[in-house]
Automatic annotation (TrEMBL):
PANTHER family: OS07G0166700 PROTEIN, PROTEIN KINASE DOMAIN-CONTAINING PROTEIN. ATP binds at K521. This is Protein kinase domain-containing protein. Residues 1-25 form the signal peptide. CDD domains: STKc_IRAK. It is found in: Membrane. Residues 493-766 form the Protein kinase domain. The keyword Glycoprotein applies. It comes from Vitis vinifera (Grape). Keywords: ATP-binding, Glycoprotein, Kinase, Membrane, Nucleotide-binding, Serine/threonine-protein kinase, Signal, Transferase, Transmembrane, Transmembrane helix. Gene3D superfamilies: Galactose-binding lectin, Phosphorylase Kinase, domain 1, Transferase(Phosphotransferase) domain 1. The lineage of its organism: Eukaryota, Viridiplantae, Streptophyta, Embryophyta, Tracheophyta.
Amino acid sequence: MMTVGKFDLLFWVSSIFCLMYVSLGFDPTDNYLIDCGSSKNTSVGNRTFASDNSDSYTVSTPERLFASTNSNTISSNYDSSLYQTARILNETTHYTFSIKAPGWHWIRLHFFPFVYQEFNLSAAKFSVSVKNFTLIREYQPQNDAEVKEYSLNISSGPLVLTFTPSANSFAFVNALEVLSLPDGLIPDGASVVHQPGSYQNLEKQALETVIRVNMGNQTVFPQNDTLWRLWISDYSYLKHNNLGTFVSKEDKVNYTSGGPTQDTAPRSVYGTATTINDDSDPRIMVNVTWLFDVDPEFEYLVRFHFCDIVSSSPKMLFFNVYINALAVVTDFDLSNRTSNILGAPYYMDVIIKMGDSRALNVSIGRSTVDSRRTMAILNGLEIMKMNNSKGSLDVLDSEVKSSKTSSKVKVWVMVGLAGGVLCTVAVLALVLFLLCRRRRKLSHVGHSVQDRFGENGGGNLRSRNMDGSAIFSVSKIGYRFPFVAIQQATDNFSENMVLGVGGFGKVYKGTLGDETKVAVKRGLAQSRQGLAEFRTEIEMLSQFRHRHLVSLIGYCDERKEMIIIYEYMENGTLKNHLYGSDLPALSWKQRLEICIGSARGLHYLHTGTAKAIIHRDVKSANILLDENLMAKVADFGLSKIGPEIDETHVSTAVKGSFGYLDPEYLTRQQLTEKSDVYSLGVVMFEVLCGRPVIDPSLPREEVNLVEWAMKWQRKGQLEEIIDPRLAGKIKPDSLKKFGETAEKCLAEYGSDRPAMGDVLWNLEYALQLQVSGERSNVNGGEMSQEAGSINRLPSGFSTAHFSMGSIDDIAGISMSAVFSELVKADMR
Ligand SMILES: *[C@@H]1O[C@H](CO)[C@@H](O)[C@H](O)[C@H]1NC(C)=O
Ligand SMILES: *[C@@H]1O[C@H](CO)[C@@H](O)[C@H](O)[C@H]1NC(C)=O
Ligand SMILES: *[C@@H]1O[C@H](CO)[C@@H](O)[C@H](O)[C@H]1NC(C)=O
Ligand SMILES: *[C@@H]1O[C@H](CO)[C@@H](O)[C@H](O)[C@H]1NC(C)=O
Ligand SMILES: *[C@@H]1O[C@H](CO)[C@@H](O)[C@H](O)[C@H]1NC(C)=O
Ligand SMILES: *[C@@H]1O[C@H](CO)[C@@H](O)[C@H](O)[C@H]1NC(C)=O
Ligand SMILES: *[C@@H]1O[C@H](CO)[C@@H](O)[C@H](O)[C@H]1NC(C)=O
Ligand SMILES: *[C@@H]1O[C@H](CO)[C@@H](O)[C@H](O)[C@H]1NC(C)=O
Ligand SMILES: *[C@@H]1O[C@H](CO)[C@@H](O)[C@H](O)[C@H]1NC(C)=O
Ligand SMILES: *[C@@H]1O[C@H](CO)[C@@H](O)[C@H](O)[C@H]1NC(C)=O
Ligand SMILES: *[C@@H]1O[C@H](CO)[C@@H](O)[C@H](O)[C@H]1NC(C)=O
Ligand SMILES: *[C@@H]1O[C@H](CO)[C@@H](O)[C@H](O)[C@H]1NC(C)=O
């Protein structure tokens, strides 16, 4: 058995390997388990690893040496009893295993370096190969236990595993496993979608398991897996662990005949999942993303495990799956693949070719097509590296990219294995259907990849290291500007260009390269608070577009800057037109139209989307006027999604502007849309009276505009305190309607205040009362304008992420509803 310079350690299927063990499920035909260097059999769970004490090269580690130096560093994922001993190989050595069952096999190599006499195993350096595949080249063990797993289709035996020490070094191994896999665990290559320039058949490949991940924040240890696999918790791979929700419902998993079995992945994998956070706003399209570090320039087989353990009925899941920003499957309907059986496991294999990047990103996101079914789920993930054309799996043999096209990544979907009870015909039909669809999708994917690379900068907002819960979900809307471009646009932030100064910083006028005028808000030195508002503002502005909300053009976060670029509003703030400047007085009709525009913008925020957005800082300084004096609401830095009634939520300090703050919010910290209604009520009196909300220079009773105006409103003598420049120009009916509306807005309790839509309606009515006679005319003009025009971004910017159509619709619907009510009211 021993030859000069070469050792053949032959392991026959002999009695010592027919050890008694009770398997949890699968009983491999070929099942070699060797505790290398050990003089005794070692039990690990239900398996027994045999000793290979046959010759003098067995190395035993005295217990004390091991225990005193390394006991704490052994990874707990595998049983450390295997790591007490090792076999040291100072010459090329072959382990030969006879194969009884041709087909896919696993080879697991366990390495744990320790120090034994003159051997410091950490100094080892060696290569391992099998057949003509290089599994490991010039390997230098790490300081921790490491298990490497390879999958190979052995069509004919024996399997020869060769350890080759590097020059002046040696090899070692602590334990070895060679076992046959259940049929179908790795699908045969027949169903691979071939692409030009693609790879050979899968059955001819050697695969190295990079990682197995169990979604749902729970590690599954080898002892609890039918095939002794380790499934690591996804927690540390989540890009933003606050976006996912972890679910564990193992009893929901229903392994049905024909689909994946416990051997595909155990119940503890299918029965736990990470889903998109329930609480996150469905309109804010987020992806849950996991980041993995892989060797570049290799192809990877990625297996997604799905199992609907969250729905109460089928057809509730509808989502997209991406790898490295490429769609693997869009609008994925899991129940369709599992014959509508809830809890039936399903998996999907995809092959991806990495470019020169080490980052393999996997994302799931809600489907945008069907807003009702918006849950996305992932239960498990396996990533396996495929050997390259040199027959190697080692990064040292990675292929240098031959051309510049290497950054293009290709995705092949191999097979969507049926999870439910599907007869062969149905499977075939499904596969064909998928293939066709895939083909179509692939060409589409190709384009979008091109597009993305074509875009300058790509404009990807990256969330910062903050504890805020939201992230930028906008990848393409907010355009990231280079700092130099903004310097140029603003004459290097010249004081001459300053349009205004606020708590956040200064606002500059700027002109972009294409002559587009912009307003540039530059945040003061980075405060945590400022950063949060900066993020909120970009997030909000890029999600929503409306002709009465100021548009976002871009942003810049280079060099720790916090710069937001908006469309330029020729006529500045409403406040500036009301008092404290020598601008010509606005007419009552103009003022009403401005109030209406503001209310319409806010109404859209409150109702235009599934969950209300609360602006929180409505004031005349945040209402901007364009060249036609059309109002647009600005400054979304404090905006919040949805009513906030959780009183335990202490961290939410009362924010807003003095004088405009809803007293109910102030005292009870209850934030609802009605807080914006209150603030708009304040703005309405400001508009009517043409004076600041708080004016300490006035006699005491007049200091607070709201108190002062409400006093006169209750007396029914509002005309006494109106802006003198409006004296005699407001029709009494219009003033009465306006005063009543403002009064209602300022009700002490939010529940008594009208909704923004009612405010809008009342303001429209007040306008009609003012202009009655020419009513139909005005209305016609207003309507056509409403239906026909929508804000356009300056040329050169596209509105990538929102659909013009839908927003048009929303604006149209709310407007026509208001209008029809108006007509009815008028006809009474
Ligand atoms: C290992 O177990 C086998 C089967 O039980 C037995 O034949 C063999 O003697 C054992 N070896 C040692 C060293 O205990
Ligand atoms: C060993 O197998 C038995 C019977 O299948 C099982 O009850 C037990 O939990 C297993 N032990 C381990 C450690 O897996
Ligand atoms: C390997 O070790 C054995 C025993 O120590 C020794 O006889 C042999 O010469 C060594 N071979 C090499 C290549 O160092
Ligand atoms: C293994 O490879 C052989 C030869 O390439 C092939 O005939 C066989 O179908 C493969 N087995 C599996 C399970 O893929
Ligand atoms: C063993 O080798 C490693 C790496 O070469 C080194 O860090 C470590 O200190 C060595 N240990 C001993 C006990 O010499
Ligand atoms: C997920 O696991 C991590 C690390 O084990 C733990 O810190 C965290 O609390 C877990 N999260 C949940 C929601 O269970
Ligand atoms: C295996 O699963 C059982 C039951 O879920 C659990 O009690 C046990 O701790 C698990 N063992 C390991 C090593 O994870
Ligand atoms: C599992 O699915 C089958 C259909 O294949 C169904 O008949 C059975 O009731 C399901 N079992 C459970 C526990 O839901
Ligand atoms: C993967 O994510 C990382 C971190 O977000 C990013 O830097 C990298 O560009 C992404 N890679 C791909 C290919 O999407
Ligand atoms: C989710 O990820 C995909 C791929 O990276 C991307 O195209 C899509 O825009 C992302 N969705 C959101 C809402 O970020
Ligand atoms: C899956 O979708 C296809 C195409 O929409 C449909 O024909 C088929 O009936 C669906 N299958 C199930 C089980 O819902
Ligand atoms: C490995 O050898 C087989 C024949 O034994 C050959 O068909 C195959 O192409 C070789 N693979 C590589 C990567 O050289």
